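Lab notebook, bench 4. Continuing the backlog of folding jobs that were queued last week. Each job is logged with the same field layout so the records can be merged later without manual cleanup. Today's entry covers Lipoprotein, a 114-residue chain. Filled in by technician R.K.

JOB TYPE: sequence-to-structure
TARGET: Lipoprotein
LENGTH: 114
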Amino acid sequence: MRMRWGAGLLMLFSIAGCGAQPAPAFFGAARAEVLRDGRQYVVYRKGDRVEVIRLGYARPGEHRAIRETMVSLVPQVTGCRLSDDASRGDSGEMRGRLVACKPGRWQLVAEGKD
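JOB STATUS: finished
OUTPUT FIELD FOLLOWS
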């Protein structure tokens, strides 16, 4: 019984520690944290790909507006337009391909580097 309890607790802490971790394809990507409309987002960019992750809870009925905010963050943060045919995800995470980038807009460094 004790072993089950310990294993369950370990699993719970493992899941709770996930936070805004990028998909494996975005390991080492540049990262930006953005606060918009009282909600926090993390934007990862690697090459011509982008991932946006919403942090925190969303109530039913808020998901459409959150998704629209996530799409609008991409050009504001990266200086690139999000390809219409290459974005997927929901109001929790979204990935896409970047097109029509303005030079010099993305001035972040890869995670773990100063």
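OBSERVATION: The beta strands are 30-36, 39-46, 49-54, 81-82, 88-89, 93-99.
SIGNED: R.K.
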